Amino acid sequence: MSFGRAIILKTAALKPVERLVRRSFLFRGVVKRFIAGDTLAEAMISAEEVAERGLKVSLDFLGESTTKRDEAEQACAMYRQIVEAIAASPHRDAINISIKLTQCGLDIDPSWAEDNYRQVLWQAAGSNTFVRVDMEASDYTERTITMIERVFADFKNTGTVLQSYLKRSLDDTRRMIKLGARVRVVKGAYLEPESLTVGDKEATDRQYIEMAKILMAEGNYPAIATHDEKIILALKSWVNENGIEKERFEWQMLYGIRRDLQDSLHAEGYNVRVYIPFGDSWYPYFTRRLAERPANMWFILKALFRK
Ligand SMILES: Cc1cc2nc3c(=O)[nH]c(=O)nc-3n(C[C@H](O)[C@H](O)[C@H](O)COP(=O)(O)OP(=O)(O)OC[C@H]3O[C@@H](n4cnc5c(N)ncnc54)[C@H](O)[C@@H]3O)c2cc1C
Fold first, then answer.
1. Of 80, 30, 31, the residue nearest 59 (C-alpha)
2. Total-model pTM
3. Is the CB of 183 within 6 Å of ligand 1?
4. What does residue 231 show for φ and ψ, rounded to 5 degrees?
5. Residue 260 annotated in active site
6. Domains along the chain?
7. Which tens digits make up the pLDDT trace of 232-268?
8. How far is the CA of 186 from the centre of ligand 1 (A)?
9. SS3 label, residue 224
10. Residue 33 CB less than 6 A away from ligand 1
11. What pLDDT does 299 receive?
12. How confident is the model at residue 295 (pLDDT cuts 50, 70, 90)?
């Protein structure tokens, strides 16, 4: 991870900084760029707009690292409401859901969290909705993967995410291919100890391409989630050279980022899915987005100085 990115993530984790960002109206415009709104109704409006453009959607109810049982229960109740809203949508086939195991209570009681996750899957299976488990910081990687391995025996409508910055991810790619579960490949958004990572951006990008190729050749409908045009171009050529059909995978991008690229890939006949987050617990998600592109931070600093 770059020095600038690590500094932004560390600074953003300080409580006074969080209070400033949450209270200041200066951040609202930037927050709105990345987050569809506070409510499910607002998120569904955005989801249907995206679906009207011919793209697919994954809805994410923001929240993570839950330490209270009632909060985890509320989050899982919201997941089930999302599944109901998707089932009632005219675009139901284009929309699925992304969830976090720490939001289901993984830090409180792992087997209770698994029950919560299974209940969401059970309801989603009724309307053929796919449930993706987002990957969180490396403390959770093994627990997430082993839980998916257990649960997949009963529910095929689930899969997870693997991060190319982690050394272990090539092995995990093989594990998920063996299982038959769908994988979203990402670079990784958390501050991780160097001992666990493959190294700098170049090494992360190299492993990203390697994982994406393995998944596109052997995996179950992988999601190639990135806004990195160089990687997208390289993978598009590889796909053409190797006769991989466009229906075998999808590109994924985040709401508010590279809409031009989302639309141009769709126009070329690829499947493209937009990840749409909503809810009032937006702070950790928002800071990860700022850290990914220091230019986002400059935008805010300029606004502060102009005041
Ligand atoms: C659909 C989706 C789901 C994800 N799920 C997870 C997950 O479960 N776990 C996890 O750890 N990470 C997740 N991520 C985040 C991911 O790990 C990266 O942090 C993020 O995608 C940025 O990396 P990049 O591949 O776009 O490449 P980068 O090298 O970071 O960026 C390439 C280019 O994309 C553009 N760009 C990237 N980020 C931004 C931004 N925030 N604002 C403006 N422009 C930007 C810039 O032009 C940049 O030069 C997800 C990403 C996507 C797209």
1. 80
2. 0.94
3. no
4. -65, -40
5. no
6. 1-34+291-307 (no CATH), 36-281 (3.20.20.220)
7. 999 999 999 999 999 999 999 999 999 999 999 999 9
8. 7
9. strand
10. no
11. 62
12. confident
